Amino acid sequence: MRRSSGTYRQRAVALAAVAALGAALLSGCAEDSDDSGGSSGGSGGGGGKGKTTITVGTFGVFGYKQAGLYDEYMRDHPDIRIEESSIERNENYYPQLLTHLGTGSGLADIQAVEVANINEVTTTQADKFVDLSKASGVEKDDYLPWKWAQATTEDGRTIGLGTDIGPTAICYRKDLFEQAGLPTDRDEVARLWAGDWQKYVDIGKRYMADAPDGTSFVDSAGGVYNAVISSSAERYYDRSGKLIYKDSPAVKEAWDLAVSASQAKLTAKLQQFQKSWDQAYANGRFATVSCPPWMLGYIKEKSGAKAEDKWDVAAAPKPGNWGGAFITVPQAAKHKEEAVKLAAWLTAPEQQAKVFQKQASFPSAQAAYRLPQVADARHPYFGDAPTGKIFAAAAKGVPTQILGPKDDLIKQNITDIGLLQVDQQGKSPEDAWKAATKTIDNALDQ
């Protein structure tokens, strides 16, 4: 079965863990008829006769309904009703969106776009979306510059407003670090590898020298690769849009470090988001994993009560990003003016902070980091770690990444074919790289 994209994983994980993490962190558009079917947003009801219905098309879980934002907006705008239609998997959602854009029909008033697809939409479909940079209430400086840039065209039109992001840290087991003779304080741990992913691998070798029986330093070679590549600006494409992954210095660094971690026997030889990975959390089989905010609930769920206060969170060697999305307003939206107002409101810093508090979706609006829901966020399961401050600092340090239309496909095959062959099958790095690149080139018709 084909592994789904990283951001779909993000949303699925956030859904599964929403209750636990929230507590810890303090098709078509039409005028509404006489049908009193109610809103997908929640109670906001009373039928809908005479109201304007704004439709929202998403994939997975964006958290607006769960955080009560639709109901809040409808209370403040009694002439508006909001209906959300969600397709679970982005690989099913995105082709439908492209089809609707091509025909100019069947589009919701607001359409979500995943980060893996935003480059393709921005470079090839921008004329089919409203420029949201001009919307009332939207302030460019409220958002992280790198996130804003991802949905901005060369001529300065911003077609998508950032919803969430996935700034990365390192989650680590304090008990295993202590048994291996390493520091356990999160600030001291962060200093061990600050500024250099090679230091992270070197600390792994120190860990393994006195590792508790049956444990490894890190979960997988693919996990190491993903962590390293997520902190790089130019990866699979250059600024002109040329495919460069075979000669990319960032890909080479991430590949070499992942291979070295595997060959030094630092990994538990797992594949992320598989059952064996989940079981390894429960059994305490590895000591570190790269983790965005949305993964904290997943770790808590899979590790269970017996591991409470054994996990902690430290800054990664370099800030990276894993996941995120945008919302857009198509030019063909039936209620374009009202949709723009709603999109601006949903992505405002105050609303992003509310979604984070309820859903663990980390805000792309940097102005939200000053709000108490983010600034004061701590996670008791992870030793009361100041997660709001840790992830906000990471978010501000993420480089402006050059995105390409097939980033996700390339990364998936490098990790799930190439590095998996090295890590689990003992194949040579040269043969594994050839296998990965052959599959990628076939998929890209190279």
TrEMBL record:
Source organism: Streptomyces palmae
Statement: the UniProt record of this protein carries the keyword Signal: yes
Signal sequence annotation: 1-30
Name this protein carries in UniProt: Extracellular solute-binding protein
PROSITE patterns: PROKAR_LIPOPROTEIN
Protein keywords: Signal
